[in-house]
């Protein structure tokens, strides 16, 4: 091997860290909380996409602390899963069918939430859309769909929430769920990465615009958090790496409750002066750089696609 071949060094990494080093410790057990019991008694939390995956995990932590939860999403089976998973944990649970691409459906969903429990105090902007696709293969409608759900839908929900609080003269707190490729770019996810960059930027703008009215807004970025509800597209992508743990500096993936704990802190009475910030919960994965970077593999080769043809 000559000294500058792309894989020089890579083949010599026989001292892989996994199994040799401990990595970041496991978190406290499911059901534990850093916040006092009852922190969210009497608080209404509106969670988009709260019937699956990370949205459900976030809603779970609020429910355990006493919150009333409203879950909004499109599919009946997801709404049913929200009711089944959240009922009995703490506060009350309501679900509402809503496609966040449509501002009228969002207004109707907030109206329904108010009828159930009153104006939500907290909005978790969690719903998003994503699938891996080489940028050159992506159809205009695929781009529009992901941007419409992830960026436009997030803004429409924040707008509806804020307008209602401005009208009522009450404070509120918003958390936008992001992704670290908002900063780094996301090969294979051009649509989602661009949309999440907008979601992060929106946090910074709205925190300044709405702070005077008592509305706090922060971003919360999950790293790799595998869960049972992942769409086939995302699951397939995650499964391409047979063992995820050695790919993370933490030597493990995130446990979904860790994201729920971060959300419940950000909107708690203990975080009132934090606004316009985006908290990354990924064990430092997005800052990962190697002394010798691995060889570059084009996205379509990573996805096993044939050469591009018009
Ligand atoms: C290490 C790897 C993991 C990194 C993770 C990175 C961090 C981000 C994670 C996430 O965001 S996870 C959230 C993922 N969850 C979801 O996406 C749930 C919601 N998703 C959906 O409802 C669908 O997947 C959808 C396609 C996004 C939207 O469904 P909808 O019914 O509204 O649209 P369609 O009519 O089905 O499709 C619209 C458009 O998009 C094209 N398309 C759909 N899937 C693909 C695909 N896999 N590849 C390429 N193109 C796709 C579809 O063909 C349509 O385009 P046209 O054919 O009309 O041109
Ligand atoms: N899991 C991970 O490792 C990572 C996740 N993230 C982010 O975390 C958040 C949650 O992701 P995750 O739980 O993994 O994904 P899921 O696919 O499990 O959740 C997405 C949720 O969004 C809802 N949703 C999608 N489109 C719409 C729409 N048009 N209107 C209303 N609701 C909609 C879905 O419900 P329904 O189909 O019923 O509408 C679903 O409940 C997302 O913002 C994602 O980008 C970021 C980085 C990594």
UniProtKB/TrEMBL annotation:
Biased composition (Polar residues): 1-15
Boundaries of every Ketoreductase domain copy: 43-202
EC class (word): oxidoreductase
Reaction(s) the record says it catalyses: (2E)-octenoyl-CoA + NADPH + H(+) = octanoyl-CoA + NADP(+); (2E)-tetradecenoyl-CoA + NADPH + H(+) = tetradecanoyl-CoA + NADP(+); (2E)-hexenoyl-CoA + NADPH + H(+) = hexanoyl-CoA + NADP(+); (2E)-decenoyl-CoA + NADPH + H(+) = decanoyl-CoA + NADP(+)
Range of residues in the leader sequence: none
GO biological process terms held by the UniProt record: fatty acid biosynthetic process
Molecular function terms, GO-annotated: trans-2-enoyl-CoA reductase (NADPH) activity
Subcellular compartments: Peroxisome
Superkingdom of this protein's organism: Bacteria
EC number per UniProt: 1.3.1.38
Principal location class: other
Region (Disordered): 1-30
Transmembrane segments: none
Keywords tagged on the record: Fatty acid biosynthesis, Fatty acid metabolism, Lipid biosynthesis, Lipid metabolism, NADP, Oxidoreductase, Peroxisome, Phosphoprotein
One Pfam family, short name: adh_short_C2
Pathway in which the depicted protein is active: Lipid metabolism
Quaternary assembly: Interacts with PEX5, probably required to target it into peroxisomes.
Task performed by this protein: Participates in chain elongation of fatty acids. Catalyzes the reduction of trans-2-enoyl-CoAs of varying chain lengths from 6:1 to 16:1, having maximum activity with 10:1 CoA. Has no 2,4-dienoyl-CoA reductase activity.
Name of this chain's protein: Peroxisomal trans-2-enoyl-CoA reductase
Native source species: Yinghuangia soli
């Amino acid at each position: 091997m000559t000294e500058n071949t792309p894989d020089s060094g890579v083949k010599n990494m026989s001292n892989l860290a996994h199994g040799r080093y401990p990595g970041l410790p496991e978190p406290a057990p499911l059901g534990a909380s850093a916040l006092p019991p009852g922190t969210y008694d009497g608080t209404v939390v509106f969670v988009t996409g709260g019937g699956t995956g990370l949205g459900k995990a976030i809603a779970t932590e609020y429910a355990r602390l006493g919150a009333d939860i409203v879950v909004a999403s499109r599919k009946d089976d997801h709404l049913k899963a929200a009711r089944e998973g959240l009922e009995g944990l703490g506060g009350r649970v309501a679900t509402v069918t809503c496609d966040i691409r449509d501002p009228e459906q969002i207004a109707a969903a907030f109206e329904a939430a108010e009828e159930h429990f009153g104006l939500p105090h907290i909005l978790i902007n969690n719903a998003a859309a994503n699938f891996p696709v080489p940028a050159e293969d992506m159809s205009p409608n695929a781009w529009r769909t992901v941007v419409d759900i992830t960026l436009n839908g997030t803004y429409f929900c924040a707008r509806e929430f804020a307008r209602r609080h401005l009208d009522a003269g009450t404070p509120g707190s918003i958390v936008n769920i992001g992704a670290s490729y908002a900063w780094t770019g996301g090969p294979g996810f051009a649509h989602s990465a661009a949309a999440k960059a907008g979601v992060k930027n929106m946090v910074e703008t709205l925190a300044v615009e709405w702070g005077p009215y008592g509305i706090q807004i922060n971003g919360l970025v999950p790293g790799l958090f595998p869960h049972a509800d992942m769409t086939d597209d995302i699951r397939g992508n995650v499964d391409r790496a047979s063992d995820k743990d050695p790919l993370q500096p933490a030597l493990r993936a995130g446990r979904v409750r860790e994201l729920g704990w971060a959300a419940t802190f950000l909107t708690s009475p203990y975080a009132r002066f934090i606004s316009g910030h985006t908290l990354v919960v990924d064990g430092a994965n997005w800052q990962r750089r190697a002394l010798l970077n691995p060889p570059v593999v084009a996205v379509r080769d990573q996805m096993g696609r044939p050469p591009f043809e018009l």
